[in-house]
Amino acid sequence: MADAIARIIELLPELNKAFFETLLMVGISLLVAIILGLPLGILLYVTDRGLFLENRFIKLLVGIIVNLIRSVPFIILLVFLLPFTDFLVHTTMGPLAASVSLSVAAIPFYARIVESSARDIDKGVIEAAIAAGASPWMIIKDIILPETKPGLISGLTITCISLIGYSAMAGTVGGGGIGDLAIRYGYYRYDDTVMIATVIVLIVLVQFIQYLGDFLAKAVNKR
């Protein structure tokens, strides 16, 4: 027990660095998911049949692209995007490089959650807004986004937790973060103490994010 504690103390600088690399990867990809995934999810919803911007072609095209990306296992997507990653950030190693593939995975994932949350809106409210002369932008801004706020936050929580798991996977191919630390020290050097420590860190991080997400979703829920 004393040896294990001494080993963890010895690795604290590395563990601290890996933890913040994971936060960097997840933070960047989560921001990209909000910036691109949110409007993409809204687009999937408002172009559906019977909605005010109904467009079968756009709905089909965007839906196919989203489903194609979501159907590819992350580790394969990570390798497939290496040339694009190298072009974008001029490296295929480290947390910044890993955040590229994480972002690509996060965008369609969150978009589908946004679309699903929007489907819970009473269509009568939207029809009433159209009858009152509201523009599409006003309906999105004043009805869809406020009504789906709890679902959007819950979806963001789910996306964030999934990205933590993906970031650990990215560490296996030099992406940095906690996964990289677990592979380099825990797996290759057969150091069970490091493996246990990294698992505990990931569990605590996921529990904190889940609690925070649930708290915020309840706080904005006015129903």
UniProtKB/TrEMBL annotation:
Location within or outside the cell: Cell membrane
Keywords: Cell membrane, Membrane, Transmembrane, Transmembrane helix, Transport
Membrane topology (UniProt): Multi-pass membrane protein
UniProt entry tagged with the keyword Cell membrane: yes
A Pfam family reported for this protein in Swiss-Prot or TrEMBL: BPD_transp_1
Transmembrane segments: 23-46, 58-81, 87-111, 151-173, 193-213
Family annotation (InterPro entries): AA_ABC_Transporter_Permease, MetI-like, MetI-like_sf
All copies of domain ABC transmembrane type-1, residue ranges: 19-213
Record has Cell membrane as a keyword: yes
Main location: membrane
Assigned protein family: Belongs to the binding-protein-dependent transport system permease family.
Protein name: Methionine ABC transporter permease
Organism lineage: Bacteria, Bacillati, Bacillota, Bacilli, Bacillales
